[in-house]
Amino acid sequence: MADIALAERNRQCDKFLGAKRGM
Questions:
Q1: The whole model's pTM is what?
Q2: Largest Cα–Cα distance in the chain?
Q3: What digits encode the pLDDT tens for the residues 1-23?
Q4: CA distances from residue 14 to 2, 3 in whole angstroms, order as listed
Q5: Rounded to an integer, what distance in angstroms lies between the CA atom of residue 8 and that of residue 1?
Q6: H/E element, 5
């Protein structure tokens, strides 16, 4: 359960970083 939550959090962080990088 914790792993899934962590993965989901990581995915959101990656998406945010990706958008920032694109900018």
A1: 0.46
A2: 34
A3: 689 999 999 999 999 988 888 77
A4: 18, 16
A5: 11
A6: helix 2-22
